[in-house]
């Protein structure tokens, strides 16, 4: 019967290697008389990559944030035919052609890339009858669903 042990290397910035080795069990008395135990074949050793830390800040994530930074604060116009249903004062609202401001890029969170399908958070203001102030709401959009307005 074989036993398994794990030796863990000190954590690095992204991943660490954990080596699992199969160690021979203590040989029975009759096997000790036959001679020394043979080394294990290479395929008996398993090498696994395990992420030990979640604070990974690589160059490609920094480049992605740097590429999105100039887009924040710019005015945009929605070009795709989109309907939103979360605005209470105007249910079933078609936002195609509306203009808003990019408020946030949510594709990177706490230094990690996340799988945001709609990474740009855009703020809109809508004038509604009977309301003294315009209704403010946010919509998450992809980059191909809007165009930049103005020549900044």
UniProtKB/TrEMBL annotation:
GO terms for biological process, alphabetical: photosynthesis
Localization of this protein: Plastid, Chloroplast
Domain Ferredoxin thioredoxin reductase alpha chain, residue spans: 72-145
Main location: plastid
GO cellular component terms given for this protein: chloroplast
GO molecular function: oxidoreductase activity
Keywords: Chloroplast, Oxidoreductase, Plastid
SUPFAM superfamilies, A to Z: Electron transport accessory proteins (SSF50090)
Pfam families linked: FeThRed_A (PF02941)
Subunit description: Heterodimer of subunit A (variable subunit) and subunit B (catalytic subunit). Heterodimeric FTR forms a complex with ferredoxin and thioredoxin.
Family from the record: Belongs to the ferredoxin thioredoxin reductase alpha subunit family.
Functional note: Variable subunit of the ferredoxin-thioredoxin reductase (FTR), which catalyzes the two-electron reduction of thioredoxins by the electrons provided by reduced ferredoxin.
The protein's name: Ferredoxin thioredoxin reductase alpha chain domain-containing protein
Organism: Arundo donax (Giant reed)
